[in-house]
What we know:
alpha/beta, two-stranded antiparallel ribbon, 7 strands, elongated
Amino acid sequence: xxxxxxxxxxxxxxxxxxxxxxxxxxxxxxxxxxxxxxxxxxxxxxxxxxxxxxxxxxxxxxxxxxxxxxxxxxxxxxxxxxxxxxxxxxxxxxxxxxxxxxxxxxxxxxxxxxxxxxxxxxxxxxxxxxxxxxxxxxxxxxxxxxxxxxxxxxxxxxxxxxxxxxxxxxxxxxxxxxxxxxxxxxxxxxxxxxxxxxxxxxxxxxxxxxxxxxxxxxxxxxxxxxxxxxxxxxxxxxxxxxxxxxxxxxxxxxxxxxxxxxxxxxxxxxxxx
Length: 273
């Protein structure tokens, strides 16, 4: 490479380093927010499960096994540069999805959608921007769509696939949300419990499960990015140092050649005179 090409590469790497530094700062803030929000989301989810466990004996389709038309809600990220976060999710989701013939994929996160699409599994529904900005509103909207499909008999099972931070890596829980099955929980009398009340409880439970999973996945993603970005920044800075050294060497060689050419021309001119 000549010194102009090296200079262009130095400029490109400097811009990349600016991006990695900015992503680190943003991810630190989002990681701290997710970490602060997750405990409350988990408590609300646990409470919703307790309510459902108490009425699980009610004659409702939400508590009964039926067919095998399964909706998989896979929560991934919208961006890369976050270590093995997206790859770990993809591997687990792919293994889970390929085992089911009659499946419907509800995807959260553009990166997850692209990775599964390349593996031959296309998304049926994509929930946009829910990974980047988890919110209760988005969770209730997703829960309403799933409730409608389940109530109308278009789905028989709902399974959630998301990420949870553990140590230096993330793990991928696979949890069945519906039909809800209570284990070792006291059953309350269900006489007089109206279906509308059951549906409301299921709706709150689904929204709570989705919100908890969104926050948990966000925490895992940003924690992975916080760990990955310093190394990426350091690698970029080292590359800048190497390229700068190459640039100075190429520039010096260019100057030396130019001086040699001038000297050669002066010598030729003197001989001509």
